Amino acid sequence: LGVPLLASVDRLPCYACPVPSVRGAPEQIRSVREPLGRKRQATRSRQPQPTLKLYKLNPFGADTECSMLGINCKQPNRTMAITAALALSVLYILYTFNACLLSSINRTLKQVPTVGGATVTTMERPAAVATQLPQVRILGSIVRIVPLTDEGAGTGGTNTTDGSPKYRFLRQQGLRPSRHLPDALIIGVKKSGTRALLEFIRLHPDVRAAGCEVHFFDRHYGKGLAWYRHHMPPTIEGQLTMEKTPSYFITRDAPRRVRHMNPATRLLVVVRDPVTRAISDYTQARSKKRDMKRFEELAFTNGSAGGVVDTSWGPVRIGVYAKYLERWLEAFPLAQLLFVSGERLIADPAVEIGRVQDFLGLKRVVTEKHFYFNSTKGFPCLLKSEERSSPHCLGKTKGRNHPRIDPAAIDRLREFYRPFNQKFYQLTGINFGWP
């Protein structure tokens, strides 16, 4: 029994070596060795003692020397080392594959910031999301939930500019516009080109203007600034809020009220020849009232050009610009007022709008490429506007034909306005060249 056991020691694999040494072997094993003859002992004395060096099943090379029956066995286990290397290679391949898979999934799933600050993961199905949530706006592959309410929503009023393409663009960008008091006002003068100025400057992307005349500082001042703010268009940071009401220029308390709202308010005044302005004012009123008296009957006390000019009649009274400008200069420095020529605004709108953009601190975006001249109306028209992307003119009333006025009445009015015009030139520092 012992001979085959001893003979097989040289062929034992290292993992089969028993851990106990000869010193710790049981008594039965020692008894097997003792009966061996002298020949066997002599043979062993002549032959070198075989030794085997063992390595534990450890891929990192930590070896353990084992001995059995006085024989050291220590041999590198190449098979297990190769197996460990293959296992590590497989693990690396699996890790790389999983990383690529996770990256692909991450491109499909998007992190959505909500109003509360939490994040929600959603599949990239923008059409379905927009159907379920009307207030979800999509910008590229990012979905933002945008509340479109503001502090004035509870007052019950609406602003027609909320549906303009510019405002829809802001909502699509995921921005949160809010309403502010105006930074600039077009305060006058009536029938001098205030509507044209407003429409032209609204082409600028950094300008947002109320769509209608609010009449806050002359009719609705008692309703308070909160009411006024609600009637302003929503804007974002960097945009300028504007409003146009031509009657502010002739309202006695308007300068003080505007200064109380904001002493830094910038004021734009559109003026034209007071005689042609009065005729235009009369033409507009006559279009609404067919049985209106002739111009000469209203402009002069005796109803003819030979009489005294009737300054109690509105169209004539408004043309005394110097009288009203003095009130505004008591509340604001001249540097905060810009005077726009109504005649040049029609003849060369790009030049006047360039001055307005400089005055408001805006980049010159609106240029001659935005205008074309309508030879039928004799009035500049827009190639595009805030509400429309197609070319159009301002309205049917722009460029309307004036009634025939007695030339003697026109000469008499020019004589009347001449000293007031000179005073206005001195106050503004601009010679408008009116006859």
Topology (SSEs and partners):
Layout: H1 2-7, H2 27-33, H3 38-46, E1 66-68, E2 71-73, H4 78-108, E3 109-113, E4 119-123, H5 126-132, E5 136-139, E6 142-145, H6 165-172, E7 178-179, E8 184-188, H7 194-201, E9 207-209, H8 224-230, E10 234-235, E11 240-244, H9 254-261, E12 266-271, H10 274-288, H11 295-299, H12 314-317, H13 321-331, E13 337-341, H14 342-347, H15 349-359, E14 371-374, E15 379-382, H16 407-428
Parallel strand pairs: 8-11, 8-12, 9-11, 12-13
Antiparallel strand pairs: 1-2, 3-4, 5-6, 7-10, 14-15
Helix pairs in contact: 9-13, 13-16
* CA-based shape: elongated
Low-pLDDT regions: 1-26, 28-33, 51-74, 110-161
Could you estimate the helical fraction of the residues in percent?
Answer: 25-40%
What is the total number of structural domains? 3
Radius of gyration, CA atoms, in whole angstroms: 47 Å
Largest sheet composition:
5 strands, parallel
Amount of beta strand: 5-15%
What's the architecture of the largest domain, going by CATH? 3-Layer(aba) Sandwich
Class by SSE composition: alpha/beta
Strand order of the largest sheet: 9-11-8-12-13
The CATH topology annotation of the largest domain reads as Rossmann fold
Count of alpha and pi helical runs: 16
Please give the alpha-carbon distance between the first and last residues.
141 Å
CATH superfamily of the largest domain, please?
P-loop containing nucleotide triphosphate hydrolases
Instruction: Work out the number of β strands.
Output: 15
Task: Write down the overall mean pLDDT.
Answer: 76
What is the top-level CATH class of the largest domain?
A: Alpha Beta
Pfam family, one: Sulfotransfer_1
GO molecular function, one term: [heparan sulfate]-glucosamine 3-sulfotransferase activity
InterPro entries: NST/OST, P-loop_NTPase, Sulfotransferase_dom
Protein name: Sulfotransferase domain-containing protein
